[in-house]
Design a protein that fits this description.
This protein is mainly alpha-helical and 149 residues long. The chain has a single domain, classed as Up-down Bundle (de novo design (two linked rop proteins)). Helix content is 64%, strand content 0%. It is built from four helices and no strands. Helix 1 runs antiparallel to helix 2 and helix 1 runs antiparallel to helix 4. It starts with 31 loop residues before the first helix and ends in a 9-residue tail after the last helix.
Length: 149
């Protein structure tokens, strides 16, 4: 069974989450997607401190808001009382990851940040989005993720 970065905490099966599986929702720090989204948000926040004085502050603010929204929504959703609520917050995190991906590509095209760095971060945002779509599908008991993720 897939664990999606959880140490011995299964996500559940196609029937949905069992009572013992619900406990993992409150342990979001163990989710690989949460850890990776935190690392990306922290890296972008660190870079923003350096470049904000030189370039467009509003663009960087939007990039860092989208980046921090991903782990924040995972954490908030995980603390909700039902898998349905958690899945809703994962949907919001998916949207934030998609926004971050687009903003990083725009930043690269406009010369706001180095193209190689922006593309690497955009690729990570894309991977996070895919991980979130898979996690949401497992939470909701869907057989496969929707194609929009």
């Amino acid at each position: 069974m897939a664990t999606f970065g959880l140490r011995s905490h299964p996500i559940g099966d196609a029937r949905g989450l069992g009572e013992s599986d619900r406990a993992f929702m409150h342990q979001y720090e163990q989710l690989a997607v949460w850890r990776r989204s935190m690392a990306l948000a922290a890296a972008l926040q660190g870079e923003a401190r350096i470049v904000k004085a030189i370039i467009d502050r509003s663009a960087w603010n939007q990039i860092t808001r989208a980046a921090t929204s991903v782990p924040a929504n995972i954490a908030e959703g995980a603390m909700r009382s039902s898998p349905r609520d958690f899945a809703n917050f994962l949907s919001i995190a998916i949207g934030s990851a998609a926004e971050l991906h687009a903003l990083l590509l725009i930043a690269a095209e406009s010369g706001l940040i180095a193209a190689a760095r922006a593309r690497a971060d955009a690729d990570e945002a894309l991977q996070l989005r895919r991980m979130l779509v898979s996690l949401r599908a497992r939470i909701t008991g869907a057989r496969r993720p929707p194609s929009t993720g």
